[in-house]
Specification:
9 helices, alpha/beta, about 270 residues, two-stranded antiparallel sheet
Protein backbone atom coordinates (compact mmCIF):
# COMPACT_ATOMS: atom_id res chain seq x y z
CA UNK A 1 0.00 0.00 0.00
CA UNK A 2 1.18 3.54 -0.75
CA UNK A 3 1.34 6.30 1.85
CA UNK A 4 -1.46 8.14 0.02
CA UNK A 5 -5.07 6.98 0.26
CA UNK A 6 -8.16 8.47 -1.39
CA UNK A 7 -11.56 7.76 0.15
CA UNK A 8 -14.59 8.81 -1.88
CA UNK A 9 -18.22 8.85 -0.87
CA UNK A 10 -20.68 8.95 -3.75
CA UNK A 11 -24.24 10.14 -3.15
CA UNK A 12 -27.44 8.32 -3.98
CA UNK A 13 -28.47 10.88 -6.59
CA UNK A 14 -25.46 9.88 -8.68
CA UNK A 15 -26.04 6.17 -8.05
CA UNK A 16 -29.59 6.66 -9.41
CA UNK A 17 -28.37 8.26 -12.66
CA UNK A 18 -26.77 5.67 -15.02
CA UNK A 19 -24.98 8.26 -17.19
CA UNK A 20 -23.63 10.24 -14.23
CA UNK A 21 -22.59 7.02 -12.51
CA UNK A 22 -20.73 5.77 -15.57
CA UNK A 23 -18.79 9.05 -15.82
CA UNK A 24 -17.95 8.94 -12.12
CA UNK A 25 -16.80 5.32 -12.12
CA UNK A 26 -14.60 5.95 -15.16
CA UNK A 27 -12.97 8.88 -13.34
CA UNK A 28 -12.67 6.85 -10.12
CA UNK A 29 -10.98 4.02 -12.02
CA UNK A 30 -8.41 6.48 -13.35
CA UNK A 31 -7.41 7.85 -9.95
CA UNK A 32 -3.84 6.93 -9.00
CA UNK A 33 -2.92 4.91 -5.93
CA UNK A 34 -4.99 3.22 -3.27
CA UNK A 35 -8.65 4.13 -2.96
CA UNK A 36 -11.86 3.20 -1.20
CA UNK A 37 -15.41 3.89 -2.37
CA UNK A 38 -18.39 4.30 -0.03
CA UNK A 39 -21.75 4.61 -1.75
CA UNK A 40 -25.16 5.88 -0.74
CA UNK A 41 -28.35 3.97 -1.33
CA UNK A 42 -30.32 6.08 -3.75
CA UNK A 43 -33.97 5.60 -4.56
CA UNK A 44 -33.76 1.91 -5.47
CA UNK A 45 -34.60 0.78 -1.93
CA UNK A 46 -37.80 2.84 -1.98
CA UNK A 47 -38.74 1.41 -5.37
CA UNK A 48 -38.07 -2.19 -4.30
CA UNK A 49 -39.91 -1.64 -1.01
CA UNK A 50 -42.97 -0.45 -2.92
CA UNK A 51 -42.93 -3.58 -5.09
CA UNK A 52 -42.73 -5.74 -1.96
CA UNK A 53 -45.49 -3.83 -0.17
CA UNK A 54 -43.13 -2.39 2.46
CA UNK A 55 -43.99 1.14 3.56
CA UNK A 56 -41.28 3.82 3.36
CA UNK A 57 -41.23 6.41 6.16
CA UNK A 58 -38.86 9.39 6.02
CA UNK A 59 -38.30 11.98 8.76
CA UNK A 60 -36.25 15.07 7.79
CA UNK A 61 -34.84 13.17 4.83
CA UNK A 62 -33.76 10.18 6.93
CA UNK A 63 -35.19 6.71 6.45
CA UNK A 64 -36.94 4.98 9.34
CA UNK A 65 -35.57 1.44 9.23
CA UNK A 66 -38.03 -1.00 10.79
CA UNK A 67 -37.51 -4.75 10.41
CA UNK A 68 -39.16 -5.09 6.94
CA UNK A 69 -37.25 -2.04 5.65
CA UNK A 70 -34.01 -3.43 7.09
CA UNK A 71 -34.48 -6.52 4.92
CA UNK A 72 -35.01 -4.28 1.88
CA UNK A 73 -31.96 -2.04 2.43
CA UNK A 74 -29.76 -5.05 3.16
CA UNK A 75 -30.79 -6.64 -0.14
CA UNK A 76 -30.61 -3.44 -2.16
CA UNK A 77 -27.60 -1.63 -0.69
CA UNK A 78 -25.46 -4.66 0.16
CA UNK A 79 -26.57 -6.67 -2.88
CA UNK A 80 -28.05 -5.00 -5.92
CA UNK A 81 -26.39 -1.56 -5.79
CA UNK A 82 -23.06 -2.70 -4.34
CA UNK A 83 -22.53 -5.57 -6.77
CA UNK A 84 -23.52 -3.48 -9.78
CA UNK A 85 -20.82 -0.96 -8.80
CA UNK A 86 -18.27 -3.73 -8.30
CA UNK A 87 -19.07 -5.30 -11.68
CA UNK A 88 -18.77 -1.96 -13.48
CA UNK A 89 -15.43 -1.24 -11.77
CA UNK A 90 -14.12 -4.67 -12.77
CA UNK A 91 -14.97 -3.81 -16.39
CA UNK A 92 -12.91 -0.62 -15.94
CA UNK A 93 -9.88 -2.54 -14.70
CA UNK A 94 -10.36 -1.94 -10.97
CA UNK A 95 -10.12 -5.10 -8.84
CA UNK A 96 -12.99 -4.07 -6.55
CA UNK A 97 -14.37 -6.03 -3.62
CA UNK A 98 -17.94 -5.28 -2.47
CA UNK A 99 -18.37 -5.06 1.28
CA UNK A 100 -20.60 -4.03 4.13
CA UNK A 101 -19.24 -3.04 7.53
CA UNK A 102 -20.09 -6.56 8.73
CA UNK A 103 -17.67 -8.17 6.27
CA UNK A 104 -14.42 -9.03 8.05
CA UNK A 105 -15.81 -7.01 10.99
CA UNK A 106 -14.56 -3.76 9.50
CA UNK A 107 -17.21 -1.30 10.78
CA UNK A 108 -18.87 -1.99 14.13
CA UNK A 109 -21.83 0.14 15.21
CA UNK A 110 -24.53 0.37 17.85
CA UNK A 111 -28.24 0.77 17.30
CA UNK A 112 -29.14 4.44 17.61
CA UNK A 113 -30.80 5.18 20.97
CA UNK A 114 -34.43 6.30 20.81
CA UNK A 115 -34.83 9.99 21.63
CA UNK A 116 -37.51 12.10 19.96
CA UNK A 117 -37.57 9.71 16.99
CA UNK A 118 -37.15 5.95 16.80
CA UNK A 119 -35.09 5.42 13.65
CA UNK A 120 -35.25 1.66 14.05
CA UNK A 121 -32.30 -0.43 12.90
CA UNK A 122 -30.00 2.52 12.22
CA UNK A 123 -26.37 2.31 13.30
CA UNK A 124 -24.00 4.84 14.84
CA UNK A 125 -20.38 3.83 14.13
CA UNK A 126 -18.29 2.99 17.18
CA UNK A 127 -15.22 1.24 15.74
CA UNK A 128 -13.41 0.71 12.44
CA UNK A 129 -10.87 -2.08 11.91
CA UNK A 130 -8.37 -0.20 9.75
CA UNK A 131 -5.93 -3.13 9.96
CA UNK A 132 -8.39 -5.32 8.07
CA UNK A 133 -9.04 -2.61 5.47
CA UNK A 134 -5.28 -2.21 5.09
CA UNK A 135 -5.04 -5.94 4.42
CA UNK A 136 -7.53 -5.63 1.53
CA UNK A 137 -5.55 -2.74 0.06
CA UNK A 138 -2.27 -4.68 0.33
CA UNK A 139 -3.87 -7.48 -1.67
CA UNK A 140 -4.41 -5.00 -4.50
CA UNK A 141 -8.16 -4.79 -3.83
CA UNK A 142 -10.32 -1.67 -3.90
CA UNK A 143 -12.99 -1.86 -1.16
CA UNK A 144 -16.47 -0.69 -2.17
CA UNK A 145 -18.61 -0.22 0.94
CA UNK A 146 -22.39 -0.30 1.10
CA UNK A 147 -23.89 1.92 3.86
CA UNK A 148 -24.48 -1.01 6.23
CA UNK A 149 -22.75 -1.88 9.50
CA UNK A 150 -23.30 -4.48 12.23
CA UNK A 151 -23.60 -4.59 16.01
CA UNK A 152 -22.32 -6.95 18.68
CA UNK A 153 -25.68 -8.74 18.77
CA UNK A 154 -25.29 -9.69 15.11
CA UNK A 155 -27.76 -7.22 13.65
CA UNK A 156 -27.19 -5.50 10.31
CA UNK A 157 -27.72 -1.74 10.72
CA UNK A 158 -28.55 0.90 8.11
CA UNK A 159 -25.88 3.58 8.46
CA UNK A 160 -25.45 7.06 7.02
CA UNK A 161 -22.88 6.80 4.22
CA UNK A 162 -21.36 10.24 4.99
CA UNK A 163 -20.76 9.15 8.58
CA UNK A 164 -19.32 5.83 7.49
CA UNK A 165 -16.92 7.55 5.08
CA UNK A 166 -15.76 9.95 7.79
CA UNK A 167 -15.23 7.15 10.32
CA UNK A 168 -13.21 5.02 7.87
CA UNK A 169 -11.14 8.06 6.84
CA UNK A 170 -10.35 8.97 10.46
CA UNK A 171 -9.25 5.44 11.34
CA UNK A 172 -7.14 5.08 8.18
CA UNK A 173 -5.51 8.47 8.84
CA UNK A 174 -3.28 6.76 11.39
CA UNK A 175 -1.85 4.61 8.59
CA UNK A 176 -1.72 6.91 5.54
CA UNK A 177 -2.19 10.48 4.32
CA UNK A 178 -5.93 10.45 3.60
CA UNK A 179 -7.88 12.61 1.17
CA UNK A 180 -11.64 12.34 1.78
CA UNK A 181 -13.93 13.45 -1.04
CA UNK A 182 -17.71 13.75 -0.82
CA UNK A 183 -19.15 13.62 -4.34
CA UNK A 184 -22.73 14.55 -5.12
CA UNK A 185 -24.83 16.40 -7.72
CA UNK A 186 -23.73 19.96 -6.80
CA UNK A 187 -20.40 21.63 -7.63
CA UNK A 188 -19.57 22.11 -3.96
CA UNK A 189 -20.88 24.03 -0.95
CA UNK A 190 -22.92 26.94 -2.27
CA UNK A 191 -22.94 30.46 -0.82
CA UNK A 192 -26.36 30.91 -2.47
CA UNK A 193 -28.49 27.73 -2.63
CA UNK A 194 -30.34 29.13 -5.67
CA UNK A 195 -27.13 29.66 -7.66
CA UNK A 196 -25.33 26.45 -8.62
CA UNK A 197 -22.24 28.45 -9.55
CA UNK A 198 -21.83 30.18 -6.16
CA UNK A 199 -19.32 27.58 -5.00
CA UNK A 200 -17.18 28.49 -2.00
CA UNK A 201 -13.63 27.44 -2.84
CA UNK A 202 -12.71 27.15 0.84
CA UNK A 203 -14.81 26.69 3.96
CA UNK A 204 -13.64 27.18 7.54
CA UNK A 205 -15.57 26.34 10.72
CA UNK A 206 -16.28 30.07 11.32
CA UNK A 207 -17.59 30.58 7.79
CA UNK A 208 -19.65 27.40 8.11
CA UNK A 209 -21.21 28.70 11.34
CA UNK A 210 -22.08 32.02 9.66
CA UNK A 211 -23.80 30.37 6.69
CA UNK A 212 -25.61 27.90 8.94
CA UNK A 213 -26.93 30.74 11.10
CA UNK A 214 -28.06 32.60 7.97
CA UNK A 215 -29.78 29.49 6.62
CA UNK A 216 -27.77 29.37 3.37
CA UNK A 217 -26.30 26.04 4.53
CA UNK A 218 -29.11 23.82 5.73
CA UNK A 219 -30.87 20.44 5.64
CA UNK A 220 -28.69 17.56 4.42
CA UNK A 221 -25.55 19.66 4.02
CA UNK A 222 -25.30 20.14 7.80
CA UNK A 223 -24.64 16.50 8.78
CA UNK A 224 -22.37 16.14 5.71
CA UNK A 225 -20.26 19.12 6.79
CA UNK A 226 -20.29 18.07 10.44
CA UNK A 227 -18.84 14.71 9.40
CA UNK A 228 -16.33 16.41 7.11
CA UNK A 229 -15.00 18.83 9.74
CA UNK A 230 -14.89 16.02 12.30
CA UNK A 231 -12.66 14.04 9.91
CA UNK A 232 -10.28 17.00 9.51
CA UNK A 233 -10.23 17.56 13.25
CA UNK A 234 -9.19 13.94 13.80
CA UNK A 235 -6.29 13.76 11.39
CA UNK A 236 -7.59 13.41 7.83
CA UNK A 237 -5.25 15.41 5.57
CA UNK A 238 -7.75 16.90 3.07
CA UNK A 239 -11.52 17.00 2.74
CA UNK A 240 -13.22 18.17 -0.46
CA UNK A 241 -16.91 18.38 -1.39
CA UNK A 242 -17.50 18.41 -5.13
CA UNK A 243 -19.61 17.40 -8.13
CA UNK A 244 -19.17 13.77 -9.14
CA UNK A 245 -17.95 14.89 -12.58
CA UNK A 246 -15.06 16.81 -10.97
CA UNK A 247 -13.71 14.08 -8.72
CA UNK A 248 -10.37 13.76 -10.56
CA UNK A 249 -9.70 17.51 -10.32
CA UNK A 250 -10.72 17.51 -6.64
CA UNK A 251 -8.34 14.67 -5.78
CA UNK A 252 -5.39 16.23 -7.61
CA UNK A 253 -6.02 19.62 -6.00
CA UNK A 254 -6.88 21.49 -9.20
CA UNK A 255 -9.40 23.77 -7.53
CA UNK A 256 -12.62 21.84 -8.03
CA UNK A 257 -15.31 21.89 -5.37
CA UNK A 258 -15.07 23.19 -1.81
CA UNK A 259 -11.97 22.43 0.25
CA UNK A 260 -12.53 22.44 4.01
CA UNK A 261 -9.90 24.11 6.16
CA UNK A 262 -9.30 24.21 9.90
CA UNK A 263 -7.98 27.46 11.44
CA UNK A 264 -4.20 27.82 11.25
CA UNK A 265 -2.74 27.49 14.78
CA UNK A 266 -1.43 30.78 16.11
Amino acid sequence: MSTQLTIIKIGGNVVDNPDALKRFLTAFAGLPGDKILIHGGGKVATQVAEKLGVQTTMVDGRRITDRPMLDVVTMVYGGLVNKQLVAQLQALGVNAIGLTGADAGTVLARKRPVKEIDYGFVGDVIEVDSGQILYFLRQGLTPVYAPLTYDEAGNILNTNADTMASAIAVDMAGRASVTLVYCFEKKGVLANPDDDNSVMGKLTPDLYAEHKAAGTINKGMIPKLDNAFNALDKGVSRVVICHADEVAAAVTGEGAGTTLRLPTPA
